[in-house]
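Quick one:
INPUT:
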């Protein structure tokens, strides 16, 4: 958020706005969990009607929506009536580019408890999830089906948004069989396969993840998709001339990444490719999406981080690969292409 002229001239106002970020996150998470945006539109609706439809306490819901209206999420009209703005539309469950499940996830207990240990993360370098629960984030989620469902819904939404951006920016022509490693419910792979009807695809993820792939996820790609269950620390699919990973490498430290990349390198043909879809930290000043997401990785993962081009190059080189190019997209995500060294 760029400082306004008012806040730039008054550091106390700027600092106060920054400190109240927690309140905004919880406000967004609360209205997302209640499904408020699914029950209103551009026509102003009375707060009592919204509360009745969402099972909320009207006076309390009003106070939250009033704050969010001031941030441009809703538009408040006289009589305590609210309508959706373009930003608020993103909290609808089925809106293109929906962020509802991300908002819900950011209020889930497993994420908030981890941030209670933030100062210890700075002191020790250990992630907040391990300090709060004594286990890795993905092991924790496997024990919490409801929160895992929210997490996967958020990741599917992310993959749907990224799918178009990635396929618009990167030319997949020439790839005959592509494996989406750690591909979740397959939204990214489905997007690519629909754009390239001659391509075969493999969706690869942990058993509890691929068990939840929607039946219609690969509609229109029948006969071209294989779904495999397994751990990318133990193996990756055979017979592929390219591997793609979206927001996988950033979840892990360099040692774990070398294991994943090494397994891919061992199976790549001479002209094969590894495509890492992650944000890339540049020298751009200000709170860029990559820098902000990097803090989430600091707290939530064991060694995960957003990497600079130089860090990607070093990681690939230590895994028998070579950074070939970085393809930017219309979204903050990039396609970082590696080839056999």
């Amino acid at each position: 958020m760029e400082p306004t002229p008012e806040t730039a001239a008054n550091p106390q106002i700027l600092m106060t706005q920054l400190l109240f970020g927690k309140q905004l996150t919880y406000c967004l998470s609360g209205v997302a969990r209640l499904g408020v945006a699914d029950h209103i539109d551009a026509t102003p609706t009375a707060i009592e009607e919204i509360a009745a439809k969402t099972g909320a306490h009207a006076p309390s819901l009003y106070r939250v929506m009033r704050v969010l209206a001031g941030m441009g999420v809703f538009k408040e009209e006289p009589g305590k009536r609210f309508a959706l703005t373009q930003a608020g539309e993103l909290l609808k469950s089925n809106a293109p580019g929906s962020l509802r499940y991300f908002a819900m996830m950011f209020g889930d207990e497993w994420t908030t408890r981890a941030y209670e240990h933030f100062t210890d993360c700075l002191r020790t370098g250990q992630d907040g999830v391990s300090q709060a629960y004594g286990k890795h984030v993905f092991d924790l989620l496997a024990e919490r089906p409801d929160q895992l469902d929210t997490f996967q819904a958020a990741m599917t939404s992310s993959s749907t948004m990224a799918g178009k951006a990635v396929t618009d920016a990167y030319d997949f022509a020439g790839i005959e069989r592509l494996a989406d490693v750690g591909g979740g419910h397959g939204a990214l792979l489905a997007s690519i396969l629909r754009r390239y009807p001659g391509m075969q695809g493999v969706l690869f993820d942990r058993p509890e993840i691929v068990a939840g792939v929607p039946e219609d996820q690969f509609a229109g790609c029948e006969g071209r998709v294989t779904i495999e269950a397994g751990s990318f620390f133990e193996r990756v699919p055979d017979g592929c001339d390219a591997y793609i990973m979206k927001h996988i490498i950033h979840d892990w430290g360099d040692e774990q990444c070398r294991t994943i990349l090494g397994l891919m390198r061992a199976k790549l043909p001479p002209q094969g490719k590894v495509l890492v879809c992650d944000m890339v930290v540049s020298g751009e000043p200000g709170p860029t999406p990559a820098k902000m997401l990097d803090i989430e990785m600091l707290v939530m993962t064991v060694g995960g981080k957003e990497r600079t081009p130089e860090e990607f190059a070093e990681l690939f080189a230590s895994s028998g690969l070579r950074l070939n190019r970085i393809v930017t997209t219309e979204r903050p995500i990039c396609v970082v292409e590696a080839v056999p060294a």
